[in-house]
Amino acid sequence: MEENPGFELFRDCLPFSLVESLREEVERLKGADDRAGARNLFARSDAIRNLALSCELRALLPPEEHRPVRSLLFDKTAEKNWPVAWHQDRSIAVASRKEIAGFGPWSEKTGIPHVEPPPSLLESMATLRIHLDPTPEDNGPLLVCPGSHQLGFLDSTAIEEFSRGPIVTVSCQPGDVLRMSPLLLHSSKRSQSPSRRRVLHFEYARRSDLPKPLKWYEDAEADSSPIESSAI
Ligand SMILES: O=C(O)CCC(=O)C(=O)O
Asked: What residues contact residue 125 under an 8 Å CB cut-off, 6+ apart?
């Protein structure tokens, strides 16, 4: 089971100067908003969209063509701090609700339709988590259960069993990037540190993955082609 752990950590993927400019961009995007994160960053930030499309990040993905289809910012701070229970990322954000066999249940997050696709679609997707701050043990690092992505959707009994261990704590430095399967069981604890913990979370899918007439809510690639990081 653990031969394919469902995640890989890539150290020092982004130079510190880029991390610093991404931190500034995150501040600009958040503005006066004191929420613990943000969604739909590609349409609101060229810098973040270009990062998701960069050759450096795409080089971390499997060889099939992958396009960035969802972006989130998680920003744990001393004031906004929360534990995340063990879960798999089971839903995708789509442009509008269309009933299709195998897709459901539906939900809404900040007014955006989300749906659970068949697990096979999630198996073909990949998530990159770009770390903008150190995540030592006391700063709410991601915890993952190696191999837990290989069994489709897990029920509560399986989640309970996996969460007894083995568990890997993903401690990162700024510029490190974690690649993981959306189906990998993961959680995080409240941060015990006064430091911030900013993570950009990008989900990538294959071009052909979504059956018509469903469309991704976000599609960073819609009107551009991959770019070199010097242009970020
Ligand atoms: O960044 C974290 O601590 C976990 C976030 C997460 O997986 C979620 O909110 O779904």
From this structure: 66, 181, 182, 203, 204, 205, 206, 209
Give the containing element (helix H, strand E) for 26: helix 16-30
Which of 84, 171, 172 best tests ligand 1's pocket when mutated (most atoms within 8 Å of CB)?
Answer: 84
Per-residue pLDDT tens over the stretch 132-156: 999 999 999 999 999 999 999 999 9
- Its pTM stands at 0.93
Geometric angle at alpha carbon 159, from 115 and 6, rounded to 5°: 75
> What does the longest C-alpha to C-alpha distance in the chain come to?
47
Query: Cβ(73) to ligand 1 under 6 A?
Result: no
Predicted confidence (pLDDT) per residue in 186-230, tens digit: 999 988 888 999 999 999 998 778 999 999 999 888 755 444 444
Q: Hey, whose CA ends up nearest to atom 3 of ligand 1? A: 188
DSSP 189: P
For residues 141 and 195, the answer to whether their CB atoms sit within 8 Å is no
Question: What is the token pair recorded at 105?
Answer: 């249940």
d(CA 150, CA 66): 20
What pLDDT, on a 0 to 100 scale, did the predictor assign at position 99? 96
pLDDT tens figures, 35-47: 788 889 999 999 9
Domains of the chain by start residue, with CATH: 7-217 (2.60.120.620)
Write the Ramachandran bin of 16: left for phi over 0, alpha for psi from -120 to 50, otherwise beta. alpha
